Amino acid sequence: MAQTPQAKYRKDYQSPSHTITDIDLTFELNETQTVVTAKSKLTQLKETTSLKLDGEALTLKQVCVDGENWSNYELLEDGLLVHSLPKQCDLTIVTEINPQGNSALEGLYLSDGAFCTQCEAEGFRRITYFLDRPDVLAKYTTTIVADKKQFPSLLSNGNRIDGGALEDGKHWVKWQDPHPKPSYLFALVAGDFDILEDSYQTKSGRDVQLEIYVDKGNLDRANHAMLSLINAMKWDEERFDLEYDLDIYMIVAVDFFNMGAMENKGLNVFNSKFVLANEKTATDTDYLGIEAVIGHEYFHNWTGNRVTCRDWFQLSLKEGLTVFRDQEFSSDLGSRAVNRINNVRIIRGPQFAEDASPMSHPIRPDKVIEMNNFYTLTVYEKGSEVIRMIHTLLGEANFQKGMSLYFERHDGTAATCEDFVSAMEDASGIYLKHFRLWYSQSGTPVVKVKSHFDAESSTFSLEVEQYTPATQEQSEKQPLHIPLAIELYDSEGSLVPLVLGGEKVSNVLNVTDSHQVFTFENIAEEPTPSLLLDFSAPVRLEYEYTDEELGFLMVHARNEFARWDAGQMLLAKYIKSNVERVQANQEVELPPAVVEAYRGVLLNEDLDPAFVAEAMTLPSFNEVSGWYDLVDVDAIDFVLTTFKKQLAIQLHDDLERVYSSSAQSDYSLEHSAIGKRALRNRCLSYLAHTDKGFELVEQQYKNATNMTDTMAAMQAANSAQLSCREHLMSDYSQKWKHDGLVMDKWFQLQGTNPDKEALSVIKETMAHEAFSMKNPNRVRSLVGSFMNMNPVAFHSKTGDGYKFAGGILRELNDSNPQVASRLLDPFLKLKKYDQHRQKLIKDELVSLKNMHNLAKDLYEKVTKALEE
Ligand code: TRP
Ligand code: ZN
């Protein structure tokens, strides 16, 4: 490494010395030599006539001040220092960049021949020297010049105001964005696309043109994205009273993209995975993902773009809030319970794991080396949980008042998390002083509850203790303000009113101290408590339920989430006890009562099939790993696999009955149809482990009319290691080998292959014609799934899995550090494995650390992991 990367601290925030109010950009597009002319209106804000601009991987051609050539500047490693500037001036900078050589997919790059940009977080500095920070808001005018035949579509933010033909077969288009924005929201796209067009009229009567740009030939896969966009626009008007503010909204789908999608003003750029779908190529899960991401990026137009972040430490201001909004969107349109279950799985699985890793950080981080490393589950998903807790404490009406006040105060500016909380407080009159600790304290709080019934005084008390274990970067922890939602049920399953100190209270308890007792009055018989209802706070709950109580809650809890959660707790008890049994060389034992509880759920026709499908799902290997300080890979895997087989064998008659009775003749995307398919395919995943497995799976693959059913068959064949697996895999590959996006599903099956020889097959698969190390989706599908979802092979004691991953990481360090850094995450958990494995992982981390050109993305994580 050339220089040791330097950390930035939140406490060191300084407002900028200058601002840029307007910028006029001209791009003369060329694959290897694009010339960018940037004319900025500059205003000095502080007592200095020198200006430091950010810049990376740029070739400087010219600097002019007020039209005069300017030589009074210094070229720095990370930018340009211009001296002796007038208080106000026009600063023109000409740079040259090489989009073709840009494999990091940050700044201006080529995706399958089309030019596109990715500027968040700090990619604009790879386009021109600029004040590349979110608190500098400018009005952008962008002129694009390119070959007309090759690049008929020339797009940027805002409205198209001019254009025309040029000599040599070139043409040009000029765009103007009337809304001042930070540089990270800038976008440019040039290419030859098919365009799906539609329109939307906002509730105040503005006509908005909607355009989705996809690769030629993919028009029949863009309809769901368009429908989702229209639904999102409507929903934001209805629920948040927020309207769109330009005359055009464009979405471009590209194949080469580091993340999910990007909310550039008026011109979203999407990973094609979150746009393209038809029933033959996409699963129901893909469809729901598209709806969520289209919604997410659209909702950023207000929470992110109209009000943006003062600095990157405030990222959760836009991301936590926008995730909350997209979760609400999906919940209002689909099943609230199923959405909540899936969101909670992410928190309890990978987010809690992040808290326990050397990368633990608060939702508003204090220290950052590479900003790209902080687009995390903590900032996004836990950030959303923090917003959700505010929503729980204030209620919907007050929350909406808070949102209005937030926009009234901060529209058109760059704000902080503190600004958001203050608006919520001022609008509601509800005090959130203690609650703010959620923004600065990292780690997963543990809430331990004990109950005590006193027949004589007719009281039932809950004794609540909370503590947060230390995290690597923060040893001291304070008690948090935790909204603990509860319900009490009598033996009939009826709700028991909550009375504290003679007064009826709401079902959200304010837990604020490390130790508190809530004594409920007028309780005639010992009730069954349902605790942390709807997962009212992102904490680990500990309460000693009996099997009977959990069985009771699985049936009687008033809300579906609580019923699901009771089922998960029941399974958790037996997963834990059986891991111990396996470690003591005893057999796995699943008590008949547990099996019967699951039979009850499966056969209960009053339940939503989508919900039953979730309830019938065992916790993932990764979630279970999170319960342990030391992960016994083989024991956990064995218990989960055995549970699956035992449930399959003992429930097989009923599974078969539900499987055949829930077949559907037509394919529809109605939520009820999606739910029915989910349940049917859940049944198949169990049945694959029975004698009937081979026959049913082959039959389903052969008869499938949609990708959901095709993939369910292949997944079942893969995880149950059926002998038809090979045949199905080769049939699928024959059919789809020319379509990388559809092949990703196949790559993922190779990556998660439970077979002993999986790794050698994975290595061969890298030579598949649809695979490319340059495409992040392909890498994540094959290598990412291996590292994250193939625990036995990845953690093989031979170290082969780690060595393979290490090699991939070293290769990606050079080409795409952002993707490498995400892929590295499983290595961060090294201390959760035995000494032997720890040593092997450490070897890989050290070999990364010793690279002469280690990117700062990897440097930040590797050094933290080795510091432990
Ligand atoms: N702001 C984007 C979102 O949440 C995230 C994103 C897209 C991103 N591309 C990125 C973040 C590249 C960092 C780098 O929707
Ligand atoms: Zn976002």
Automatic annotation (TrEMBL):
Protein name according to UniProt: Aminopeptidase N
Classification via CDD domains: M1_APN (cd09600)
Catalytic activity: Release of an N-terminal amino acid, Xaa-|-Yaa- from a peptide, amide or arylamide. Xaa is preferably Ala, but may be most amino acids including Pro (slow action). When a terminal hydrophobic residue is followed by a prolyl residue, the two may be released as an intact Xaa-Pro dipeptide
InterPro entries noted in UniProt: Aminopeptidase_N-like_N (IPR045357), Aminopeptidase_N-like_N_sf (IPR042097), PepN_Ig-like_sf (IPR038438), Peptidase_M1 (IPR001930), Peptidase_M1_dom (IPR014782), Peptidase_M1_pepN (IPR012779), Peptidase_M1_pepN_C (IPR024601), Peptidase_M1_pepN_C_sf (IPR037144)
All copies of domain Peptidase M1 membrane alanine aminopeptidase, residue ranges: 229-435
Occurrences of domain Peptidase M1 alanyl aminopeptidase C-terminal (ranges): 547-867
A Pfam family this chain is assigned to: Peptidase_M1
Entry cofactors: Zn(2+)
Keyword Metal-binding listed: yes
Keyword annotations of the record: Aminopeptidase, Hydrolase, Metal-binding, Metalloprotease, Protease, Zinc
Family designation: Belongs to the peptidase M1 family.
Gene3D superfamilies in UniProt: 2.60.40.1840, 3.30.2010.30, Neutral Protease Domain 2, Peptidase M1, alanyl aminopeptidase, C-terminal domain, tricorn interacting facor f3 domain
Peptidase M1 alanyl aminopeptidase Ig-like fold domain mapped to chain residues: 443-544
EC number: 3.4.11.2
MF-aspect GO terms: alanyl aminopeptidase activity
